[in-house]
User: Fold these one by one.
Assistant:
Number 1:
Amino acid sequence: MIPIVAQPHAGCDDHVTTPDDVVFLLDCDNTLLDNDIVQDDLRDHLAREFGAISRDRYWAIFEHLRGELGYADYLGALQRYRLADLTDTRLLLMSSFLIDYPFASRLYPGALDVIRHLDTLGLTVVLSDGDVVFQPRKIQHSGLWAAVDGRVLIYIHKEQMLDSVAARYPARHYVVMDDKLHILATIKKIWRDRVTTVFVRQGHYAHGPDNLTAYPAADLTVERIGDLVTCDLSALFGETAASRPQQEQP
C-alpha cells in the first residue's frame, strides 16, 4: 500500500535522515490521542440523533467493516449505513459531526510536550493505521501533523510496511511507541536490536487481557504518554547524533 505522506512546504527541502539518527515512530490513536473518547462521543451523537437501535446498527457495520479492511473506517461504515435508507437526510449531519470533530481537545495531556522533547533527541514521525480520508484529517485537526512538521505515514497494517518506513526515514535506530503489544512484538521480531519498543498503556486495547498476556513485554512500559517527557530514553538506545556535542573542526 502507498502510504499517506505530507508534502514538503514550498521552498523547503524534504527532510531525509541519515543512518546516524534516531527516529521516533509514534502511533496516533490511544497513544497520542484519546480515541476511546472520540468513539464514546460518536456513540452518544448517534443515539441522540438516530436512536439506540440505529446507533447499534451503525456500530455493527463499523466493526464488520473493520474486520474486512483491517482498520477503522468511520466514513466507510457511514456509507454502508446509508444504503439502508437513502432518503434519511440526517446522515448529512452525522458526516459533519465526524469531519468537524474537535480532535485537538482529545490529545492526551503532555502529548505535544513529548513530541517537542523527542525532537531534541531525534526525528519524530507519526506512524498510524487508518483510511485515506478520515485518519489524515484527524491527525491534521488534532495538531499532530503540524507538531511533527508533516512527517506522517498512514498504512493499513503499519507493522507490515517497515521496509517502506525505513526507506522514507532511514535511521541507525528506531523507537516505536504504541498502545498495542501485538504491533510492538511484530516490529521487534523484524527489526530486533534495531528498534526499542515502548508500550503506552492507555485505552481499552492496552488494558485488554489478551493484549497483556499473549505477547512479550515491550522494552519500556509507561502508564501515560506524558511520562516520556521525564524518561531517559537515550539510555535505552545509546547516544543520538542530535544529543552528541559537536566536534571542533581542525
Number 2:
Amino acid sequence: MKIEELEVYNLANNLGDKVWDIVIKWEWFEKRGIGQQLTDAADSIGANISEGFGRLSPKDNRRFCIFARGSLYETTTWLFKSYNRGLIGHDIYDSFKQECNNLQVKLWNYVKSLEKNIQ
C-alpha cells in the first residue's frame, strides 16, 4: 500500500492546505502569532501520519498517529482562537470544526486498525 492511498493521510493534508489558504491572506502580526502556530499544527497532522507510515513496525506507526491526534487537537484550539479573535468567520470555523471532527474519527479508526497488527 502507498501512503497516498490512505484516506486519513489525504484528509489531513487537505486540512493543512485549507488552513494555509486562509492564513496566507492574513496581516503580518496575525500570521506571525496565531497563523504560524495554526499552520504548523495542521501540517503536523499529515506529517506525523506519514512518518509513522514509514516506520517499520505497527507500534511505531501507532505512536506517530497518536502524535498526529495531538496535533489535530492543537489545530482545533488555534482554529477556535482564530474565530474568537475575528480572523475567521462563523461559517469557516464551523466547516473546519466538522472537518476536524471527521478527521478525528478516521484517525482513531486507523489507530485501532494498527493496534490489531500489534497484538
